[in-house]
Amino acid sequence: MSSKLESDRKGLNAALEEARKGHLEAGIPIGSVLAIDRGGGDLEILGSGHNQRIQKGSAILHGEMAALEMAGRLKANVYQKSTLYTSLSMCVGAILLYKIPRVVIGENQNFMGDEALLRERGVEVVVLDDPECIGLMRQFIDENPNEWNEDIGES
User: Fold this and answer.
1) Which terminal residue of the chain, N or C, has fewer Cβ atoms less than 10 Å from its own Cβ?
2) Average per-residue pLDDT for the chain
């Protein structure tokens, strides 16, 4: 296994652990991690979090936003050498604002964010099609269609 793929699996596993936390809290099971690849499969996790819109009644605590919040205030060059790992698609605006150059997504079958826009803006987008990510989201959407539609801005 290449060191990049090893890092991607580690990052996604950390994001998936966050998604599981959200699921156990009866929230939307989307987790995210902001990390820097130090090479050889070694990841430095800067922040991690999960969607807490239901748990905290928050309008903005999507998984990616929670990970950025937990990372705290960072210098621009730190974001510009990081990777955002997320179990399901992503918050495109934050990625572009902070110039995060790489996003690794667990799955985009249940929902696809604007990956095309990220690619157009030079962001490397990697989709791993992880079976656990797919199943966890499918279960949540099937069991909680109203909460899911609210989360993605649908009626």
Assistant:
1) C
2) 94
